[in-house]
């Protein structure tokens, strides 16, 4: 017997007696495991974060596909190891970008998300994932901090509460609660203000955008988080949103509409890229070589590879040296899919973040520019682990611009 | 076994050893039709020294060892037929040296074809190596050890012909070198020494573990082009191939015959790739190729397919991701092929045998060949797609493959990187003294018979 309706708590799979079905199961056996998903289009290195970190075939996208098929066929069972394999995926999208099979490539990540839902329903998730989701459930943010502190990051600034401004600025979880993320949020907001953008922030009631909760397979919790936000945004008559994090940008743009949240959504770099002409730069800035790290949820997931580069190219004296893996071939920092909080990927020598900062250093750049608070924090930790302090500085793009304007 | 696995973990670190069901399941099979055979554990060494320690330990405990590169051989050669450990070599993926003047590269045993291609494009754009049609994650060592071929095989022969030397860890733990690198710091050639590299090529991982190798590089041209020659008469193909290779300007020649797309059905095509340092040279080479088969063009019984440049770029992409798409033709993720090495005069016979087998077993097929050297041989392939989720479909493909192996041997060819059943067919046809010598060599190199046991056995 099998079910066609997937009725698990996550809404991703169902189990009746010995028979199990899973959303997108019809594509699992079609993967040939050719391995294009492990690499960038140049093949210069490995580009699947979890495969790079663990190296077993099981940790590659194709490995996951075959394991899931084997599970549905009763050849293997759900286990702690299997769970780690599934949750080590950062949902970076390298596999969907490079899979040569047009018939199902776009569904790869969706299949993995559905499978994670199955593990959640069985209570078989890594401790880090469990704790992450519990904090989200209880507090509406992954830090487990009070909701009333969400707007504290703006304290001491002139950022106004949202009333009838053109844009709502959404700082997201890291911008709201992480010390480094707060610095980045203040920097981006400062630059938006300098550029004359009309925006305000919510001071009460919003919660996590839920992007990475969705990627973790906890669909019901994501919908709850999204509903809370959309109710609030709609009540406040929000029409346009600027996000600090590409993760929030992705959720608002792609997932909120079908949950009643229809907004014009922008990442802050997309707004600033076309307003750089309004900024006055200091004369005689020192020349500097920077490289830019594309965040997955702005790049591969939403195909914006140029807003940040436009901002950087407007900075006098700054030159961009591209890394081998850039734009649609960029290596994920390892923080996606909730891994920023769950740490399933760990931070060993071959962790994606450490590999990425080594690649940045190899360009000769002294600044690694980022436009995602998660990436900034992940890569800063990696710089320390690699002993590159003083050689390579992680800077968010608005920080670079703020440093050089009057 | 648990104690053995703990000792393995002491060598590589626990993160690179697994005896978990997930790894044992996934490493029990490849993409082809051969039935699974589970290893007891999978281990990923990071250095030659670690490989040596693993081999010493496995030899001491008489535990089977199956070396594995990309795991893309499709014919089940990296299955642990007698259990034991699979040695996944892909952590050892460094490119160690490029010698631009003597045109060779030295790489570790798990370095991928794609990584070397990208490395050369970035650091030595004037050089390239012969890429197989396998996906880019395939390893150089794996491909050379199976006598692979690729996009420079008309120019340079089998990839094993392009090998300049090896570092190998023997089953006893001894580290040995073959070729010039056994004497000199340079890895330029296997000559003039006794060619010990042959102890490890074509043996399906039954004699040792390759940890480093040298491979010839070739000039990378700034101007590249290709032609497609088409005819309807398979009997013409040996002469056409002979004429085209006789010009000595092509880098690669790949005949192909497929029932889909519809416009291709019933025709025999030959893709001919060539390159040059200038447009003038390119035109000269094109003229030579066209003139070589003018006899047939003039009779209007064959000729070159007119192709717009945009269409050509698809064929010039190396490796072409289009090839693996064949695996999805039945929406089932599986394909396997018999690649039979044979003399080119058997082309028509091989083609007709393939058509007959496809009809008999009603399988989705694609046929083709890669010409080796100046028409010295060819790898004639019969590829069959199947649905991995349908056991009956897999069985059908297995039967077609068996029939193809039989047909190839009857024609006078030899199945390449042969599956276990085909190995036995080859052994049955092989000169008995040759097989005896293979066994004697194997027992000297591998006294405890731990290397990929089950392969090349009666």
Structure description:
The complex is a heterodimer of chains A (406) and B (458). With 406 residues, chain A is of the alpha/beta class. Chain A folds into 3 domains: 13-125, Fumarate Reductase Iron-sulfur Protein, Chain B, domain 2, CATH 1.10.1060; 140-273, Rossmann fold; 280-403, AF0625-like (Rossmann fold). Chain A has helices at 25-28, 49-54, 61-72, 80-87, 94-98, 108-121, 127-139, 172-177, 179-194, 211-215, 219-235, 246-255, 268-273, 307-313, 339-342, 352-362, 373-385, 397-403; strands at 13-16, 19-22, 167-170, 199-200, 240-243, 264-267, 288-292, 318-320, 367-370, 393-396. In chain A, the strands form 3 sheets. Chain A has a 4-stranded parallel β-sheet with strand order 4-3-5-6. In chain A, strands 8-7-9-10 form a 4-stranded parallel β-sheet, with helices on both faces. In chain A, strands 1-2 form a two-stranded antiparallel sheet. In chain A, helix 16 crosses helix 17. The longest helix of chain A has 17 residues, at 219-235. Chain A is globular, with a radius of gyration of 21 Å. Chain B is α+β, with helices and mostly antiparallel strands. Chain B folds into 4 domains: 2-90, Uridine Diphospho-n-acetylenolpyruvylglucosamine Reductase, domain 2 (2-Layer Sandwich); 91-219, Uridine Diphospho-n-acetylenolpyruvylglucosamine Reductase, domain 3; 223-316, Alpha-Beta Plaits (2-Layer Sandwich); 324-418, 3-Layer(aba) Sandwich (Vanillyl-alcohol Oxidase, Chain A, domain 3), CATH 3.40.462. Chain B has helices at residues 2-12, 21-26, 48-61, 113-123, 140-145, 153-156, 237-246, 279-292, 294-299, 309-316, 347-361, 391-411, 420-429, 432-445, and strands at 17-18, 41-43, 65-68, 85-88, 95-99, 104-108, 127-128, 163-169, 175-179, 209-216, 218-219, 223-231, 252-257, 268-276, 302-304, 333-342, 364-372, 377-387, 414-416. In chain B, a hairpin with a 5-residue loop joins strand 8 (163-169) and strand 9. In chain B, helix 12 packs parallel to helix 13. The relative contact order of chain B is 0.12. The A-B interface holds A 29-36, 38-39, 42-45, 54-58, 63, 66-67, 69-70, 75-77, 79, 81-82, 85, 100-101, 103-104, 324, 348 and B 15-16, 18, 20-23, 25-27, 31, 42, 44, 70-72, 88, 90-91, 112-115, 117-119, 121-122, 135-138, 321-322, 324-325, 327-328, 331-335, 387-389.
């Amino acid at each position: 017997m099998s079910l066609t309706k997937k009725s698990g708590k996550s809404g991703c799979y169902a189990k009746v007696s010995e028979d199990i079905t899973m959303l997108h199961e019809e594509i699992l056996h079609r993967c040939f495991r050719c391995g294009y998903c492990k690499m960038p289009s140049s093949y210069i290195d490995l580009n699947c974060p979890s495969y790079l970190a663990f190296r077993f075939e099981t940790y590659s996208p194709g490995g996951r596909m075959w394991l899931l098929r084997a599970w549905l066929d009763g050849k293997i069972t759900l286990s702690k190891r299997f769970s780690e394999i599934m949750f080590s995926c950062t949902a970076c999208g390298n596999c969907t970008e490079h899979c040569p099979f047009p018939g199902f490539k776009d569904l790869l990540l969706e299949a993995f998300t559905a499978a994670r839902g199955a593990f959640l329903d069985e209570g078989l998730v890594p401790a880090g994932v469990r704790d992450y989701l519990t904090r989200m459930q209880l507090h509406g943010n992954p830090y487990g901090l009070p909701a009333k502190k969400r707007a504290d990051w703006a304290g001491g600034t002139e950022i106004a509460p949202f009333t009838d401004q053109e844009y709502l600025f959404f700082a997201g979880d890291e911008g709201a609660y992480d010390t480094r993320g707060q610095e980045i949020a203040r920097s981006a907001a400062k630059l938006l203000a300098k550029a004359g953008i009309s925006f305000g922030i919510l001071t009460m009631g919003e919660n996590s955008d839920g992007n990475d909760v969705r990627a973790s397979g906890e669909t019901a919790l994501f919908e709850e988080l999204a509903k809370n936000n959309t109710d609030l945004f709609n009540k406040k008559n929000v029409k346009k949103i600027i996000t600090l994090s590409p993760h929030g940008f992705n959720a608002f743009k792609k997932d909120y509409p079908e949950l009643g949240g229809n907004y014009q959504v922008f990442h802050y770099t997309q707004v600033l890229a076309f307003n750089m002409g309004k900024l006055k730069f200091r004369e005689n800035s020192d020349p500097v070589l920077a490289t830019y790290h594309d965040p997955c949820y702005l790049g591969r997931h939403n195909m914006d590879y140029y807003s940040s580069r436009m901002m950087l190219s407007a900075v006098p004296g700054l030159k961009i040296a591209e890394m081998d893996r850039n734009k649609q071939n960029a290596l994920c920092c390892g923080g996606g899919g909730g891994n920023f909080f769950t740490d399933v990927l760990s931070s060993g020598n071959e962790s994606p973040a450490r590999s990425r900062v080594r690649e940045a250093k190899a360009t000769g750049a002294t600044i690694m520019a980022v436009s995602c608070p998660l990436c900034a924090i992940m890569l800063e930790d990696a710089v320390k682990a690699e002993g590159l302090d003083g050689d390579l500085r992680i800077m968010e793009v608005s920080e670079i611009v703020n440093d050089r304007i009057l | 076994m648990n104690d053995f696995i703990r000792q393995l973990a002491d060598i590589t670190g626990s993160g690179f050893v697994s005896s978990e069901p997930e790894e044992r399941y996934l490493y029990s099979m490849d993409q082809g039709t051969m039935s699974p055979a589970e290893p007891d554990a999978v281990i990923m060494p990071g250095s030659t020294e670690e490989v040596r320690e693993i081999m010493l330990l496995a030899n001491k405990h008489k535990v089977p060892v199956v070396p594995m590169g990309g795991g893309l051989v499709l014919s089940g050669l990296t299955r642990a037929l007698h259990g034991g450990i699979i040695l996944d070599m892909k952590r050892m993926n460094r490119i160690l040296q490029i010698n631009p003047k003597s045109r060779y590269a030295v790489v570790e045993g798990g370095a991928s074809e794609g990584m070397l291609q990208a490395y050369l494009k970035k650091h030595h754009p004037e050089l390239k190596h012969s890429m197989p049609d396998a996906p880019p994650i395939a390893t150089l060592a794996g491909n050379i050890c199976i006598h692979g071929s690729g996009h420079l095989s008309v120019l340079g022969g089998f990839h094993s012909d392009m090998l300049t030397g090896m570092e190998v860890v023997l089953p006893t733990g001894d580290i040995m070198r073959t070729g010039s690198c056994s004497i000199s710091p340079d890895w330029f050639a296997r000559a003039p020494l006794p060619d010990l590299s042959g102890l490890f090529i074509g043996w399906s991982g039954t004699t040792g573990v390759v940890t480093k190798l040298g491979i010839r590089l070739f000039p990378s041209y700034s101007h590249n082009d290709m032609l497609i020659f088409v005819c309807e008469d398979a009997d013409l193909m040996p002469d056409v191939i002979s004429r085209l290779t006789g010009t000595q300007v092509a880098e690669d020649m790949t005949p192909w015959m497929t029932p889909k797309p519809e416009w291709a059905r019933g025709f025999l095509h030959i893709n001919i790739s060539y390159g040059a340092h200038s447009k003038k040279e390119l035109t000269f080479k094109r003229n030579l190729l066209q003139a070589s088969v003018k006899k047939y063009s003039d009779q209007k019984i064959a000729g070159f397919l007119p192709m717009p440049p945009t269409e050509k770029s698809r064929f010039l992409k190396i490796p072409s991701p289009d090839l693996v798409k064949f695996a999805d033709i039945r929406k089932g993720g599986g394909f396997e092929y018999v690649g039979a090495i044979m003399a080119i005069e058997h082309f028509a016979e091989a083609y007709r045998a393939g058509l007959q087998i496809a009809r008999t077993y009603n399988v989705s097929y694609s046929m083709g060949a890669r010409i080796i050297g100046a028409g010295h041989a060819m790898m004639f392939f019969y590829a069959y797609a199947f649905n991995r989720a349908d056991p009956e479909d897999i069985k059908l493909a297995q039967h077609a493959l068996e029939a193809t192996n039989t047909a190839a041997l009857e024609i006078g060819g030899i199945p390449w990187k042969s599956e276990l059943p085909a190995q036995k067919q080859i052994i049955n046809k092989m000169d008995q003294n040759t097989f005896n010598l293979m066994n004697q060599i194997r027992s000297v190199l591998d006294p405890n018979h731990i290397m990929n046991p089950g392969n090349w056995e009666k």
